[in-house]
């Protein structure tokens, strides 16, 4: 009989495991709570590549001295509708948590507000930064730039990061509409996971050593040259994120990788911006009805689904049944905990 290759963990066990690894790597109680929650949500909703498999990347960033495990971010209001954060060389999610309450209050007061943050790192799905704002009744748009790995359309070398973006909005009598996506055809972490699991990608997602588009995850990891989604259209979105993320916040440009290279890290100290909008202050009292109608036109329309709703099915299943975690991943995490 073949031994099982996975172990079923409850979401509470996933979170506890993540927190244990992060604390062993030097994170304090608050920071480890924030990031462990991100890890748990990723295992629950997907993509799983941003979950427990991502913990060694967090740990490496701390043990190499690249990121601050005990970061104490600061947040300051610099205009009536603008908050500016300094992540203290820690992870963006911790700074965003510090800004959360004030950002919501400012959006309700002004109709629109923004939080921008520099001197910070980000790993994981961006949707977990926008969903809490939608739960507070706001429309939210978030962007962050990342290390250069995406070749502009027609180019031969990377300029942009995978430069993700996320959108969220409230939905009456249902969970908020929440989606996120990379500017690349496939997220870098998904390529890493495909290589680790030994399978090809469903479509060409990067360039091989000869400059040809390929589905081979190992070949793409070797060149670190990903393709933008939608050719020139995805490259334009990556440019937008570079401006709203790095340039607006004052974060590191995606091409400025020297510090990252020196520490062997898989991210840069980019810039992040989130814009929060209160639909109640925009003059359309029927906003909720519009969202309901848009969603209704999509649901039941062949195989179409509301963007991001696939996560809700994953969430419901994981909350009841837990998630199956690779024994290899668990063994790796156990080693990290014992080294802490």
Automatic annotation (TrEMBL):
Domain of life, per lineage: Bacteria
Q: Which UniProt keywords apply?
A: Oxidoreductase
Oxidoreductase among the record's keywords?
Answer: yes
Q: Which InterPro entries match?
A: Mal/L-sulf/L-lact_DH-like_ah, Mal/L-sulf/L-lact_DH-like_NADP, Mal/L-sulfo/L-lacto_DH-like_sf, Malate/L-lactate_DH-like
Pfam families hit by this protein = Ldh_2
- Keyword match Oxidoreductase: yes
UniProt family annotation:
Belongs to the LDH2/MDH2 oxidoreductase family.
* Record-given protein name: Ldh family oxidoreductase
Species per Swiss-Prot/TrEMBL record? Ruegeria haliotis
């Amino acid at each position: 009989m073949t031994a099982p290759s996975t172990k079923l963990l409850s979401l509470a066990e996933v979170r506890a495991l993540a927190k244990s690894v992060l604390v062993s790597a030097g994170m304090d109680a608050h920071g480890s709570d924030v990031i462990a929650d991100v890890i748990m949500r990723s295992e629950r909703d997907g993509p799983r590549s941003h979950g427990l498999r991502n913990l060694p990347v967090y740990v490496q960033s701390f043990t190499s001295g690249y990121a601050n495990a005990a970061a104490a971010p600061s947040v300051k209001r610099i205009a009536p509708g603008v908050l500016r954060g300094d992540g203290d060389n820690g992870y963006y999610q911790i700074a965003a948590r510090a800004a959360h309450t004030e950002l919501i209050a400012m959006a309700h007061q002004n109709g629109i507000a923004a939080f921008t943050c520099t001197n910070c790192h980000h790993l994981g799905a961006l949707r977990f930064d926008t969903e809490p704002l939608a739960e507070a009744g706001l429309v939210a748009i978030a962007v962050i730039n990342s290390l250069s790995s995406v070749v502009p359309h027609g180019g031969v070398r990377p300029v942009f990061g995978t430069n993700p973006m996320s959108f969220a909005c409230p939905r009456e009598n249902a969970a908020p509409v929440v989606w996120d996506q990379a500017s690349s055809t496939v997220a870098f972490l998904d390529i890493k996971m495909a290589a680790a699991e030994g399978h090809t990608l469903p479509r060409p997602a990067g360039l091989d050593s000869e400059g040809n588009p390929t589905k081979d995850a190992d070949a793409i990891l070797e060149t670190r040259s990903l393709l933008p989604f939608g050719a020139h259209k995805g490259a334009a979105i990556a440019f937008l994120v570079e401006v709203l993320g790095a340039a607006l916040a004052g974060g590191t440009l995606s091409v400025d990788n020297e510090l990252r290279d020196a520490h062997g890290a898989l991210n840069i100290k980019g810039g992040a911006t989130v814009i929060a909008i209160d639909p109640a202050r925009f003059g359309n009292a029927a906003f909720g009805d519009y969202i309901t109608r848009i969603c209704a036109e999509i649901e039941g329309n062949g195989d179409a689904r509301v963007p991001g709703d696939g996560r809700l099915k994953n969430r419901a299943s994981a909350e009841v049944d837990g998630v199956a975690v690779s024994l290899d991943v668990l063994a790796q995490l156990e080693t990290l905990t014992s080294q802490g």
